[in-house]
Specification:
Blueprint: H1 2-34, E1 40-43, E2 46-48, E3 56-57, E4 59-63, E5 66-71, H2 73-76, E6 85-88, E7 93-96, E8 98-103, H3 105-110, E9 115-116, H4 123-136, E10 143-148, H5 160-166, E11 172-176, E12 181-184, H6 186-192, E13 204-208, E14 214-220, H7 224-227, H8 235-251, E15 254-262, H9 264-275, E16 282-288, H10 294-307, E17 316-324, H11 353-365, E18 369-374, H12 377-394, E19 402-405, H13 416-420, E20 423-426, H14 436-446, H15 448-451, H16 457-462, E21 467-469, H17 480-489, H18 509-516, H19 518-523, E22 541-544, E23 561-566, E24 569-573
Parallel strand pairs: 1-6, 2-7, 8-15, 9-10, 10-11, 15-16, 16-17, 17-18, 18-19, 19-20, 20-21
Antiparallel strand pairs: 1-4, 2-3, 4-5, 7-22, 11-12, 12-14, 13-14, 22-23, 23-24
Helix pairs in contact: 4-5, 10-11, 11-12
Length: 584
């Protein structure tokens, strides 16, 4: 009897000890899962997650490039160990890293090595800058420049005779800030053999004097009449330009971009940098397709991508193609539903509707994301029609096609973006009458009624369309914060308080910042990994010197980035003194 009692007691103790051991193991495992050691801890901040619930937190813990805690500091502190790098945010604001959804980084980087006219708004400083650049580079056969603000020179119609004052011996080729016009001198016209008898090329125009002579201003494809004689930039020059562009982008909080028009050599340069783990941005490449019969264009793109695949590179993806349907309103090369004000013409789209439909459907059938430049209301409608045709022809898929610029829209087409699941890829900096491209060159050729529908971003957001934002750099600044200011004011960007221009198209702060964060990630097929600061997502974030949700609208454009992080790696850090006070 006693032996049986002791046996039962002993077995009970055995099972109790075993159970306690198992519970202890489970507890240890749970503790290890709950509180793994963080590589970085950011605390004491205003961290805007940009998640759907609009949650704001005060701390983030990061491990192996991913967010493992986003919440109260006491929770994230559980992940801090002596090896953890600490950053006291001192109440600074944190956002997800930004996306530039439409950018030309190699062209932007090359500006640093050419005659850059971006900052000039009067003809005298422009000519002085060209003269100085030419004098400083006597070894150059051609003087190349970019960033010409067209309205600042002769009402938007500069002449070769004016440019001859700055440089008469060597040919000069200067592109306008929108990239759709070129200003050349007499030497360049002579080299290209352009005279009164030279016909306008397809999809281009030579501006002429009353007697038919070329004035020195070339529109759209007419630019190629001269540019084909310019010695091409070398591969090394383009690579250096891309490296410079990434550096500048990171300084402005940009960790992701869509390169809007790449060629085979640019793709090769990207692959070289990716193989060396030298990309500091996540990239989608939109390969420029020649505007030809759809099968020819798609075969060309396929052959380039097959020859240079990007599947094995972490930061690089190539599944997008760039098409143009028209030009720009200010050059009267955008395709409009009605004639330009005071004119008897619109502008013919680059392709007839039937051919464009087939082109888009062909790319869609092959699985490409189609990225279309459309500025005029006819151009936008034709592109939406083409996307609708592709859906009818191929069926509905997760394509994430997008239209960029949308300079003028017919309100009847607003809801079609949501209905067709087409993303609005917009450049908010341009939506202001302080931009003389708008006040001097666009509104006059559209008239008052149509001008109410210039850059209708507010109406598009209200319709439920997905928005993603870009700069079109180097057309305008890569800095996203002045653009954010214009988006919420439709004025400026400056510190002057004014009534909004076309206030029906205003955006609120959260919508604008969503376009630069989760909207951009969505367009890049990365919304499950990035674009918001949530547990399990990549630690792609920026620290700012001011709170974008709290400062006056007129101060948004002055925002500076103090720190940029991509996948938990610091890719930019300013010299702000507060950073020195942390173990970071």
């Amino acid at each position: 009897m006693h032996k049986r009692k002791y046996l039962v007691f002993g077995l009970g103790c055995f099972w109790a000890i075993l159970l306690l051991s198992l519970l202890a193991c489970e507890s240890a495992t749970a503790d290890e899962e709950v509180a793994p050691t963080a590589d970085f801890l950011l605390y004491n901040g205003k961290i805007y997650t940009m998640a759907a619930d609009r949650r704001r937190v005060e701390s983030i813990a990061i491990r192996q490039g991913k967010i493992i805690c986003a919440g109260p500091e006491r929770d994230c502190r559980q992940h801090a160990q002596p090896s953890t790098q600490l950053l006291d945010l001192s109440s600074r604001a944190v956002l997800p890293g930004l996306t530039d959804a439409h950018i030309h980084p190699i062209s932007g980087g090359l500006r640093y090595f050419q005659c850059d006219l971006t900052d000039f708004r009067r003809s005298e400083p422009i000519l002085e800058a060209v003269t100085a650049f030419a004098a400083a580079h006597p070894d150059l056969d051609w003087i190349r420049g970019a960033g010409l603000w067209l309205p600042s020179v002769a009402g938007g119609y500069p002449t070769a005779a004016m440019l001859d004052i700055a440089e008469a011996e060597r040919p000069v080729f200067i592109t306008s800030t929108d990239g759709h016009s070129a200003w050349v001198n007499s030497a360049a016209l002579a080299i290209a053999g352009i005279n009164a008898a030279t016909p306008d090329p397809l999809n281009g125009r030579i501006e002429r004097s009353a007697d038919g002579q070329a004035t020195g201003l070339l529109r759209e494809s007419a630019m190629g009449l001269v540019s084909r004689y310019i010695p091409p930039t070398t591969r090394q020059e383009r690579k250096a330009a891309l490296v410079k562009a990434m550096e500048v982008a990171n300084q402005h909080g940009i960790i992701r971009w869509i390169d809007a028009s790449v060629d085979a050599e640019a793709l090769s340069i990207y692959r070289e940098l990716a193989a060396a783990d030298s990309l500091s941005v996540d990239v989608i490449l939109s390969l420029a397709a020649r505007m030809a019969l759809s099968t020819d264009a798609a075969d060309d793109v396929d052959s380039v991508f097959r020859a240079q695949p990007t599947d094995d590179y972490e930061h690089l993806s190539a599944h997008s193609v760039k098409l143009f349907i028209d030009g720009v309103v200010e050059g009267k090369t955008a395709a409009l539903l009605a004639n330009y004000e005071g004119e008897t013409f619109s502008f013919d789209p680059y392709l007839p509707a039937e051919e464009f439909n087939e082109l888009v459907a062909d790319f869609d059938q092959r699985g490409y994301q189609v990225h279309v430049h459309a500025c005029g209301d006819l151009g936008v409608r034709m592109t939406l029609d083409a996307f609708e045709y592709a859906r009818r022809t191929n069926g509905i898929r997760d394509s994430r096609h997008h239209i960029v610029h949308l300079q003028l829209m017919d309100p009847a087409d607003i809801d079609r973006f949501r209905e067709l699941d087409v993303t609005v890829n917009f450049q908010p900096l341009w939506a202001t009458p302080e931009d003389t491209y708008i006040s001097d060159l666009t509104i006059p050729v559209l008239g008052a009624d149509r001008s109410e529908w210039i850059y209708p971003f507010g109406a598009l957001a209200e319709s439920g369309a997905v928005l993603a934002a870009g700069s079109d750099w180097p057309v305008t600044t890569i800095n996203p914060f002045p653009a954010m200011q214009v988006a919420v004011t439709r004025r400026g960007p400056d510190t002057i308080v004014r009534p909004a221009w076309t206030p029906q198209h205003l955006l609120d702060r959260f919508t604008v910042l969503s376009a630069y964060t989760i909207g951009g990630a969505y367009l890049n097929f990365q919304e499950n990994e990035s674009g918001s600061l949530e547990v399990g997502k990549q630690a792609d974030l920026i620290v700012l010197d001011q709170d974008l949700f709290a400062v006056p609208f007129e101060d948004l454009g002055n925002t500076q980035v103090d720190l940029t992080m991509l996948r938990g790696n610091v890719i930019y850090q300013s010299n702000a003194s507060w950073l020195d006070q942390s173990d970071f």
